[in-house]
Specification:
There is one protein chain. By secondary structure, the protein is α/β, with parallel strands linked by helices. The chain contains 24 helices and twelve strands. Helix 7 (227-237) packs across helix 16 (351-377), helix 9 packs antiparallel against helix 16 and helix 22 packs antiparallel against helix 23 (464-475).
């Protein structure tokens, strides 16, 4: 049976320790090495608590201010890395040298020769087997159902492989004001499979406390606001469950994001985006098309893809929030170098293929899986992701990208595989969801908290006048700087946790 793991093995005969990270990086594994010590742990905070001091990694900080997270194996702490997914790091206990080797990579998979009908049947079979395997548990287990395609598919498969009634959970939040709730779709699937369904309604009056708790839990600066509702959901579920199945991975493996359509029809979208001054009088829509035009006009594919995957733009460079000294250090690094190193060697394959690989190798591991693992583990919940089962992943990677999107239909093959298991209004309905109102929190609930954090910072790290000016512009709704300010707030809090240990070279 295959599980996600980070393992440590001691080979007494060779006097060697082997550290092994799972193929996709579902679980984190940190490694620190200097002249005096080698440290490793599943949580970076364990390593940082041991160190008396450390220096900052400006390349990783540059990545953070652009993306809200680091994008490769480097962390914001020098010498502290994340062991790459699918990698074994061996430590020789005779001389304390370390070496690393890859035991799996995405490019080992050969393209399938099956036809479309056979592919659809194979997806259905492999997903069913993946769910069946991951239902095995010695502790209470449930399935999170959002009302979307991926989680609904999991419920359908799990219900057919469960003795007795399956426990399912869906959630809505008090701050989903004006959003479209997914509770109705989730309830429809739960009723269809007669699950023991729980509708959770979560309220929050303590965003400030939750925010600070999560900044510490995520080990290094991590600025995805969705970690807050995920933690709240996990906390409620932990009252009676210790294992949950959830749907991460389906979008990256089977092409579920709108950007896949854009790069799949690159020339059409590039032409359309050139006309942005003529197409809309609405300033917000004009700005979105202007940004898309900038992205699609980049010369290299790695520049197109990396600019697409950040909300920031070089013509509004986010490093302006830092002091001049920090900016000078950041300018010595390249914010999208991990994308360049991944995409440049791929050669003459389509932009869509490159984007799928980048999302699978960088975005999934460093953002989505990181977000889920640390929020759930804080609540002592084990999160399992059947879409990232080894057999299903290998097969999904073997499918040509042009079959994953058909007739502009995202996740075409997966939807076909689930066609007789999930209602059509869910399979082919509009993608739903809600936004965490962090932009409004920064204008109201967290406004004073933000100002206090910046003013009291004892590190000469930010350009405080510039940051507070941006905050007030955002508060007065003269512009939307929510994403940038959220990253500044996360980083400011993280720096305050470790201010007595940060040593400036």
């Amino acid at each position: 049976m295959e599980w996600y793991f980070c393992s440590c093995y001691l080979n007494i005969e060779n006097n060697e320790i082997s550290l092994i990270r799972d193929r996709l990086g579902v679980k984190p594994l940190y490694f620190y090495e200097d002249d005096d010590v080698i440290l490793f742990a599943s949580e970076a905070k364990v390593v940082l608590s041991y160190l008396s001091s450390f220096t900052l990694n400006y390349k990783a900080l540059n990545q953070f201010i652009w993306f809200g997270n680091t994008t490769g194996n480097q962390t914001v702490v020098n010498r502290l890395i994340k062991i790459d997914p699918g990698t074994i790091t061996k430590i020789n206990l005779n001389n304390f040298s370390s070496t690393s080797l890859k035991y799996w990579n995405y490019d080992q998979v050969e393209k399938t020769k099956l036809d479309e009908k056979q592919i659809i049947e194979e997806i259905k079979d492999k997903l069913n087997n993946a769910v069946k395997r991951q239902l095995m548990s010695d502790v209470p287990l449930g399935v999170l159902i959002s009302g979307g395609v991926d989680s609904s598919g999991l419920v359908a498969m799990a219900a057919q492989n469960t003795h007795g009634r399956l426990d399912t959970y869906s959630v809505d939040y008090d701050y989903n004001v004006g959003g479209v709730s997914e509770l109705k779709n989730a309830a429809k699937v739960a009723s269809m499979y007669d699950t023991n369904h729980h509708e959770l309604r979560v309220t929050t009056n303590d965003a400030e406390d939750i925010f600070s708790k999560l900044v510490f839990q995520y080990d290094e600066p991590f600025a995805d606001p969705a970690s807050i509702p995920l933690y709240q959901l996990s906390k409620v579920c932990s009252n009676d469950k210790r294992v949950i199945l959830q749907g991460d991975g389906g979008d990256e493996l089977f092409a579920g994001y709108s950007r896949y359509n854009v790069l799949g029809s690159y020339h059409i979208w590039k032409l359309a985006s050139n006309l942005y001054p003529l197409l809309f009088f609405d300033n917000r829509k004009q700005e979105r098309l202007k940004r898309l035009n900038f992205i699609l006009s980049q010369k290299s594919d790695y520049d197109i893809i990396s600019n697409y995957l950040t909300v920031e733009t070089p013509y509004k460079n986010p490093i302006r929030v830092f002091s001049r000294d920090v900016q000078n250090e950041l300018l010595k690094t390249k914010w999208n170098s991990d994308y360049e190193e991944l995409i440049k060697p791929l050669g003459n394959i389509s932009k869509l293929d490159k984007l799928l690989i980048a999302d699978f190798k960088i975005l999934l591991t460093n953002k989505y899986l990181e977000k889920v693992d640390k929020a759930t583990m804080l609540c002592s919940i084990e999160s399992r992701v059947p879409y990232l089962d080894n057999d299903l992943v290998d097969f999904a990677l073997s499918i040509p990208s042009e079959l994953k999107i058909k007739g502009n239909e995202k996740k075409y093959l997966l939807k076909k595989a689930l066609n007789d298991l999930v209602p059509n209004e869910i399979l082919y309905g509009k993608k739903r969801g809600f936004d965490v109102p962090y932009r409004e929190w920064l204008r109201k609930d967290l406004y004073g908290f933000f100002k206090q954090n910046i003013k009291e910072s004892n590190l000469s790290f930010f350009d405080k006048e510039s940051v507070l000016n941006i905050l007030d512009i955002h508060k007065d709704k003269k512009a939307d700087y929510g994403d940038l300010l959220w990253k500044v707030l996360v980083l400011s809090n993280w720096l305050s946790f470790y201010s007595n240990k940060i040593f400036n070279e």
